[in-house]
Amino acid sequence: MSIVAFDIVQFFASLNHNFLSICLKKAGLCTNIINFFNSYYTSRSTTYAWNSFLSPSFLLNIGVEQGSALSPILSAIYMVLIIKTFKKRIKSLNKEIPSDILSFVDNGLLISQEKSYDLSSVFLLCSYNIMSNILSVGLVMEHGKSKVMHFMRSQHPPNLSLDLTSVGGPILHPKPIWRYLGFFFDQKLTLQHHVHYYATKCLSTLNAIKLLGNSSCGILLSQKCLLYRTCVLPITLYGFQLWYFKSAPKVKNLTELKKMQRRAALWIIGAFCMSPMEGMEAIAGLIPIELHLRKLNRCHYLQYTSIPSSHAINSLLEIQYAKNHLPYRFSTSNLMDKQKSKLISPVKDINEQLSEITESFDPLHPFFSPGYRVVNHFSSRIMFHSPNSSSDKDLHEHIQKLNQVFHHSQSTLNDTAVITDGGVKKLGVATAVAHIWKDNSIVKRTQVQTMNVTYVEAELMAISIGLTHAIECSDSHNITVITDLLVAVRKILESQVNPFQKLVIPIANKIKTFLCKDERNNIHFWYCPSKAEWPKHNLVNRQVKEAEDNPTLPSKNSFLFSKKKECNSLLNEWQELFATSKGKGQSFLEFEDEKQKVIKPTYAKGGSWLPYIGFTNSLCTQFTCMTLGHAPIGEYCQRFFPNLPIGCPCGRATVQTREHIAMQCDWYSPSSRPRNIVINSFVHFLSDNPAAFSFDNG
Ligand SMILES: [Zn+2]
To answer: How much is the pTM?
Structure first.
């Protein structure tokens, strides 16, 4: 494949207003809007100011302002017509030229996917000529910035020049690395230079922020971890989707990133530089980079369900995921089975990932447009009631109020109360239950079950079935909904594009109809957590718990469930690998938490160790040295420096081991000696004995 990149000089400032108006007309906009833009762009003038100097006014009859919110949209519409003209001219030639064009506002790419260099050179020359001809009306192609690049998988691909002198361009000499939009492409598309560039950038960032971890006035360890994960890692992984997909060669890139992460882990926990990598990563709360990439990638693939149906990516996917888009000629749906099996491409991975999900999003659904949302119209008739704080006292008061409201609703003719609850069991069966109360008795119990949804979705389903019944089957004016998850309700009313869209739209529509029907109609949402043990809510809660698992056939997953599943499976994989791995350090000490469970690595909220040890840098360093066995003590010298003395200075141990130091040695205060392997007792010991396992002692 060969490409020629071209650039348009001063694109925004050179747009022709008459041509823009033609473009808007072709885009199908109505006359009013076109007239508005015509008048908006006529008789404009500009003045330049320099200190006290003010220039005379100049007439501005071309261009749109750079920086204006409208300009990108207008210039995109402008560009569409140019691309269309280009394609039309290519088609009208005597001989068909198989070339494509991609445009990123003022940067364009001419692409030829021929195997032979000679052929693609001719095609590119021809397309370049046509393009510069089209642009010559008002716009100027900046020949000096044009670049050529040939991509090929062979061992030593030739990198031939492209002579454009015959069409008024320069001779383009390809470079081994082509930088475009922040990506560094090499001929074989290994992206090694790209990864190297960004990893190096992050290493220098890490060097620069070293001071922030200063032991006397630096930031906390968990903050260091957060800083790395939010500010450093995203820059390093910029564009990783280009090289990280199934079966793509990625060992070298991963090695580079591992080195970078090692430096970050060293910075976060202040460990000894020879310490084993996996152990350090786990203590610092950083998931190994490969697992992290896999997680990001899978979640990224899932996001393709939420793109609008007009998005160009759709045309590359299999027909069932293409949202009625016509397949592009290189789309996977145009390939034979055999070709598909040989294909190595992220598009194939996306298809596989999408086959697991049920959801179809509609991000441009009119329901989400401003002015149509339920809260925009009825904010005063939808009320939320929750305790003032999470304290037991406030909760108690809240439940008492709830009791009064409930009894009032039961004694009033036009009131209905709905109590809902949802839950998910281990097998993935979700149960949603709603009880409809009227005149102090349950008039209806509804229950639905489904598979592979998250807890919030189960709650949302419960609210949905309860409300539907209350709205449709009674003529109440006031509906009181009692639920243990107000967040779920807010999802209905937020009406933003969210993963609950499919569940939200029908119920929000019903709420709207109900409130429109009569001005007296209101809905009140009351919070009632299970821990409050309010008897009526307990009934629902019990029904959810006691519901027999009667799942329908194993169905596909909801979007959120899939996301959660991916994250959980990678976390499990990490924990399993960690349990058996030697990379964490041969003498890695296993600790238990307060519940006497062996601590396993995690990545959320600073990981599993930092919350215990992350108070000061020195404590963390001491702890890490002890846990990894890389501390200046006899046991360590015995392994790595056999000529040095290995006994304890106290004289009671021939080999100074960690057990001896922590549990027997007289040099350290006996009052804080740990008696079990619970992490807190060791942290206590270390903070009482700052000299233990530290290098000052060595
Ligand atoms: Zn000793």
So the answer is: 0.85
Each as own residue / partner, the long-range contacts of residues 670-678 (CB below 8 Å, 24 or more positions apart, any chain) are 676/592, 677/589, 677/590, 677/591, 677/592, 678/591, 678/592, 678/593, 678/594, 678/596
Quote the ligand 1 centre to 634 CA distance (angstroms): 10
Residue with tokens 């006996």: 670
CB atoms within 10 A of CB 666: 10
- Find the 673 Cα to ligand 1 centroid distance in Å: 13
| Residue 132 vs residues 23, 121, 127, 167, 180: alpha-carbon distances, Å | 19, 16, 9, 9, 20
Mean confidence (pLDDT) of the chain: 87
Burial class (CB in 10 A: 0-12, 13-18, 19+), 632: middle
State the distance from the centre of ligand 1 to the C-alpha of 386, rounded, in angstroms. 58
Over pLDDT 90: what percentage of the chain? Answer: 23
Tell how far the Cα of 642 is from the centroid of ligand 1, in angstroms: 19
Q: Give yes or no for residue 402 having a pLDDT over 70.
A: yes
State the average pLDDT over residues 356-369.
Answer: 77
User: 668 CB contacts (<8 Å, ≥6 apart)?
Assistant: 661, 662, 685, 688, 689, 691, 692
> Is 222 within 8 Å of 607 (Cβ atoms)?
no
Q: Are 143 and 169 in contact (CB under 8 A)?
A: yes
Place of tokens 């501390």: 631
Report how far residue 136's alpha carbon sits from residue 407's, in angstroms, rounded to the nearest whole number. 79
Q: Is the pLDDT of residue 67 over 70?
A: yes
* pLDDT tens, position by position, 16-41: 888 888 889 988 889 999 999 888 88
**Nearest alpha-carbon partner for 97 in 117, 111, 107, 85:** 111
3-state secondary structure of 577: helix
| Centroid of ligand 1 to alpha carbon of 655 (angstroms) | 9
Q: Is 503 left (phi over 0), alpha (psi -120 to 50) or beta?
A: alpha
In 374-404, which positions are buried (b, 16+ CB within 10 angstroms) versus exposed (e)? beeebeebbeebebeeeeeeebeebbeebee
pLDDT value for 374: 79
Does pLDDT of 663 surpass 50?
A: yes
CA of 654 to the centre of ligand 1 (A): 9
For 257, the enclosing helix (H) or strand (E) is helix 251-269
3-class DSSP assignment, residue 691: coil
Q: Separation of 666 CA from ligand 1 center, angstroms?
A: 6
Could you identify the residue written with the tokens 């992220």?
346
475 secondary structure, DSSP code: -
pLDDT of 143? 86
Q: Which residue has the tokens 């930031």?
A: 219
CA distances from 404 to 276, 397, 411, 441 (A): 62, 11, 11, 16
Q: Distance from the CA of 687 to the center of ligand 1, in angstroms?
A: 18
The better pLDDT of the pair 404, 215 is held by 404
pLDDT category at 698 given cuts 50, 70, 90 is very low
CA distance 521 to 540: 25
371 vs 453, higher pLDDT: 453
172 SS3 class: strand
Q: Which amino acid is at 204?
A: S
d(CA 629, ligand 1 centre) in Å: 16
Round to whole Å and give the CA distance between 47 and 233: 45
Nearest to 105 by CA among 7, 239, 3: 7
CA–CA separation, 478 vs 470, rounded Å? 10
Across 75-228, where does the E strand assignment appear? 99-104, 107-112, 147-150, 162-163, 171-172, 177-180, 183-186
